[in-house]
Amino acid sequence: MGILQVQNVNKSFGGLKALNNVNLDITEGTVHAVIGPNGAGKSTLLNVCVGRLVPDTGAVLFNGRPLTGRSPHEINQMGVARVFQTPEIFADLSLLENVVIPTLAVRDGSFTVNAWGRVDNQAEIRDRAEAILESVGLAEKRHHHSGNLSRGDKRRLELAMCLVQEPKLVLLDEPTAGMSRADTNATIDLLARMQEEHGVTKIIIEHDMHVVFSLADRVTVMAQGTPIVEGTPNEIKGDPRVQEAYLGGAHL
Amino acid sequence: MVDFLNPSRRGVLKGGAAIGAGLAAPTIFSSQAWAAEYLNKPTGDTVTFGFNVPQTGAYADEGADELRAYQLAVKHLNGEGDGGMLNTMKPLTLQGNGVLGKKVAFTTGDTQTKSDAARASAKRMIEKDGALMITGGSSSGVAIAVQSLCQEAGVIFMAGLTHSNDTTGKDKRRNGFRHFFNAYMSGAALAPVLKEAYGSDRKAYHLTADYTWGWTQEESIKNATEALGWETVEAVRTPLGAGDFSQYITPVLNSGADVLILNHYGKDMVNSLTQAVQFGLRDKQVNGKQFEIVVPLYSRLMAQGAGENVKGIFGSTNWHWSLQDEGSKAFVKSFGAEYGFPPSQAAHTCYVQTLLYADACERAGTFMPCGVVEALEGHEFDGMGNGPTLYRADDHQCFKKVLVVKGNENPTSQFDLLEVVQEVPAEAVTYDASIFGGELGDCNNGV
Amino acid sequence: MTTPLATARSDLILFGAFTLAVLTMPIWLVPLGAGYPDLMQKFAIYGLFAIGFNILFGLTGYLSFGHAAFLGVGSYTAVWSFKLLGMNPVPALLLAILLSGLFAWVIGFVSLRRTGIYFSILTLAFAQMCYNLAYSVLTPITNGETGLRVLNSDPRALDHLTGQGVVDGPLVSNIFGLEMNGLPGFYFCAVWLLIGMYVSIRIFRSPFGLMLRAIKTNQTRLNYTGISTRPYALTAFVISGMYAGLAGALLCVTDPLAGAERMQWTASGEVVLMTILGGAGTLLGPVIGAGLIKYSENIFSAFHEQTLHDIFGFLPDGVEGVVVSVAGLFVGEGWHLTLGLLFMVIVIFLPGGLTSGVRQLVQMARRSSGGSGRSGGDAGTAPQAAE
Amino acid sequence: MDAILLQILNGLDKGGAYALIALGLTLVFGTLGVVNFAHGALFMLGAFCAVTVNQVIGLEQVTLDPNNLTPWGTPVEIREPYIVSWLGDTGHLILDYSVPVSILAAIPIMIVIGFIMERGLIQFFYKRPHAEQILVTFGLAIVLQEIIKTWFGANPLPQSPPTALRSAADIGVLVGFNPGEIVYPYWRLVYFVFSALVIGGVFAFLQLTTFGMVVRAGMADRETVGLLGIDIEKRFTLVFGLAAVVAGLAGVMYTPILPPDYHMGMDFLVLSFVVVVVGGMGSLPGAVAAGFLLGILQSFASMTEVKSILPGIDQIIIYLVAVVILLVRPRGLLGRKGVMEG
């Protein structure tokens, strides 16, 4: 049994069937890519997994516990982290503060009023935060305003914010979307390195085949709300159904 | 206890003049209070009055008129101008050379028609500018709030426009004095005139501003009219500043009432009267009688705001510039010459209050509040408009003629909006001081 | 871009300087014409109000348009405490903080279900309901238009117990006979202002404060970081409501009268303006904004033609007349005009408020004097929105 | 029965006014994303257009009568409007109809004011946070009202409806009530019809013109419309001008009901925001529906029968409705899902 199980999930928006009886089983420790043409339901699937959307029917289980009906912060506290298509960071805060917050969230839970101690006196939190910034290569910028970072650096920071929580599962929504070739490659390198160092289970939603084939252990192809093929990247490459799904997608 | 309230360098600090004056020593620490018998005892050659009037908000024009009157009063006290009512005031002790030999200076402030702001402004006058007397205001809430402040601080308060029974009733104070008339007196003065004009078989409908002044007026007018034999059909409270009163006016139409009494003041009165007239109330026949509207408290500024809708509508007022007694004529003449238009009742009451205070100081031979209180209590005077007047010792309320007025049908000018129907003598509106309760307490010199 | 870092030491220096400035107000305000007790009390009290408001608005970005309601609740509670318990300010303050906190909890609980302008309108609606009712049907509790005051006939149980029940002068709040008006009243408020400031500094630098700032920047991210944002925002709301209650109670300690206008939406708007004027999210800004607005309210409004003639008397006659009539538009009756123009100028040219304007000036001065801004800098957390 | 009918009439009339004021506010918010606290001031400026027009066409020739002195010793002034001395009875007629005539003047004046406001100030605040928009427009509102106060004073300045419309119409008779039971002022009926026409006009304009189409598209998705290469800036200015005209006209026609003073904008500001929010931010039909709903609810809450059960309900009804709507249906009555939903 995998770390994340999607069981018979259906989700419609008005008349549009976004997810049609989706089943998915993610093995712990793997990088699992979900690909498919626009409108295949990838993002909806991801939003169902993190609690942003509630499925019409079906369930999502994480380590055997249901995720459906829980709010995003509860799901995160269970060990699921999320990386957004456009990096979601605390743009008004410094890089260090950006990573201190998730560190605190792990130590103090979803709500603790700790209004008296100074943040900068919390040595263990700081050390962890600085260590993770070091590992993504942002240490020297730790006092900078994170809103001024380049897109690639924002992505690194966001990854750092996820990883510092030592999650069991990370969901990445098109982590290289809109990035330059150089930033994309840097991100791939970073993700690959992280996989070596931390070995966290990851689900990656992706368009860019280059990214998928560089990182993924397994790939699921979705079309029109349903997974159509699942296999290793090499198996997927040659599958005619995949070609058709993409070409068919072009027709649409 | 050491007195920290003593003024800091009055005269130098007047207004912002001191901003450039460099570092002035904080005299606030070098208190000389132990030497003074009373708060803010003037040590230089001037004595400071505090004119606390609404400069912003709905009553700003009334406040501006009050300020004009105050400035005129200061001129006259200091022997400038034509002297105004100083020529007619009887008895008169003032010399026309200031008060007790000191020139009168003044400081102004904005009450915003809010108790908080009014008290803050009055405190500044007392604490910073060294004012010995605070005067002004255009609503009872403010008057009562400032009056109790002056009592606590130990200066004299000469109320401006305030019409609630409470000011000299349950909230009266030894250090506070009111020249203006009140709701009870409005009722007492109006009732006989209404009876004569509209008969004794009438059904009245009250619309009342939903706050303390409105309630006291409603009660007073109700009592006075019911004593005539009128019946009160309904008394409805309306939110302050409602703007559109249509939802309160339409129920009047079919209520069976044949008189509408508007216990509103200021903008509320302007709006409710305008709208009531538009609803055709004055063209209506009910119970075989012509429907009538009554506005118990009138002011010229309100009449201006309501325009032609006031025509023929009865109400009461403290004073009107068309009065022909010597005092009124003298005041209207010097005010009109100075500013080009006649004074309002608020201006009159403020002018008179200033003169009365100054005269009381002169008579008492001191600015000490307790001395002034003594000089004003039970003081009888004449020649200030409204005929012979008594400052009653029991509640510090003035008793004098009350004017019943009617909206002028054919105004000859924009100021000629009200016509005096009757000058109701003081005896007719005098009441027993105990009926409104309250305690004057002791006078306070602030030391 | 790096900004100067706020360390424990720099905060201590800031607080020390602030303390010094507050305690010496009776000296340095005199040449500005504001060195009299009532205005200084108002500076301290409204400073406290704005500091509290800033904990909500400056940190979380939730713009409450109904904070005056808590000020009013604090005031009424304090006066009722005077009436029932006695003139000692301590129980009055404690009760006021407690009750306004409770009020804030209820209103916050409901209002925080929405964000943005909806949150603002909800708080505004609650405050306006409080105001309208206090002015009219709740008069038995609030004494309506006239305002709630302490009367000699009130029970004042504790006073009578300690034999201070019979007072022949005015009833003034006092601690062991030291009356809370004049300068002692100012210092009493100043102590509370300092406590309030200190607490605010602690909150700003604490993990809790960091979470609040994170709410302002990116609530979505915070949710996906495992933080439940609403309880944080509610706590901030309650804390700032308690500050407002404390400020309201202090208003009554220095002057035992509570009026309903304190709850009007314009009063809520005033604290918003104070905070933004001085600089929302900064430590000192709200206090400076509060001071500026109270100063203009009390000093500009007191100018009249004669004072203007005194000021501009040095000019030649013709010029003086023109200058006085132009200046007259902005003071006295026209002080609102000055205030309105001030807001516009500040918002247009200094969106971060006065404190950010000062900071920009300092940075420009530094740059031009050749001291190139150090990058990196010493240890500590970073771009603190503070100075 | 008659009481209820009358309150419905009151509600419709009030609702017309609320809807007119809220319409421009929600239009500006929906297209421009600006929270305009100076919108009330536009209403007030419109009302003062009527005052100005009245004063201009009523400009008086002043002759002094040296034989007749005022109590303060100056000659009595005899005033006669120039227009009357020139045109005689026609002059009287124009004076009598000065409020409706003001509309002609108010439209260009309000457009110009709107343009100046948008180009001179608002355009710099499109990207700024709501809080700053609120502050700067609030500052502007104060400045505008203080200017009006300096010029016109603080006292209300009464404006009369035309003589023919000054009294009340017995409309109950038309539907079978006894005479005098259901009477309603002509001018209020005029106001209601007028507001219906203006609202209809605005809707038709937005529905039928290309400009309107772009504006509606902009309300739905501002970025995309910008991407289509449409010069959205210029249209923003026009939208602001349109909002100013609607608010101004609401003000002009309201003057006979509420004698205008400098503060009337602030008095209506909070209320208009409540109407917009209840209707749904950025929803034009919502603003209209909410205007009428609140108007009618307010009228009913003021009835003695209701107040005896719920004392003070008429003081708070507007806010109570806002709270309930926001909690139960945060996007407002007719707001689109997802737009400014908090």
Descriptive account of the structure:
The complex is a heterotetramer of chains A (252), B (447), C (387) and D (342). With 252 residues, chain A is an alpha/beta fold. Chain A has 2 domains: 1-79 and 168-252, Rossmann fold (3-Layer(aba) Sandwich), CATH 3.40.50.300; 87-166, no CATH class. Chain A is built from 9 helices and 10 strands. Chain A has helices at 42-49, 72-77, 95-108, 123-136, 151-163, 181-197, 209-215, 233-238, 240-251, and strands at 4-13, 16-26, 31-35, 57-62, 65-66, 80-83, 169-173, 201-206, 218-223, 226-231. In chain A, the strands form 2 sheets. Chain A has a 6-stranded mixed sheet with strand order 6-7-8-3-9-10, sandwiched between helices. Chain A has a 4-stranded antiparallel sheet with strand order 2-1-4-5, with helices on one face. Chain A is globular and about 55 Å long. The mean pLDDT of chain A is 87. Helices cover 34% and strands 18% of the residues of chain B. Chain B has helices at residues 60-77, 115-127, 140-153, 183-198, 212-228, 246-253, 266-278, 300-306, 326-339, 345-364, 369-376, 426-429; strands at 46-53, 103-110, 133-136, 156-159, 176-178, 203-209, 231-238, 259-263, 285-286, 289-290, 292-297, 314-317, 380-381, 389-391, 398-399, 402-407, 418-424. Chain B has a 7-stranded mixed sheet with strand order 7-6-8-11-12-16-17, sandwiched between helices. In chain B, helix 1 (60-77) runs parallel beside helix 10 and helix 7 (266-278) runs parallel beside helix 8 (300-306). The longest helix of chain B is centred in the last third of the chain and has 20 residues, at 345-364. Chain C folds into 2 domains: 8-281, ABC transporter involved in vitamin B12 uptake, BtuC; 303-368, no CATH class. The longest helix of chain C has 26 residues, at 229-254. Chains in contact: A-C, B-C, B-D, C-D. At the B-D interface, helix 1, strand 7, helix 6, helix 7 and helix 8 of B face helix 1, strand 4 and helix 11 of D. Chain C: Keywords: Cell membrane, Membrane, Transmembrane, Transmembrane helix.
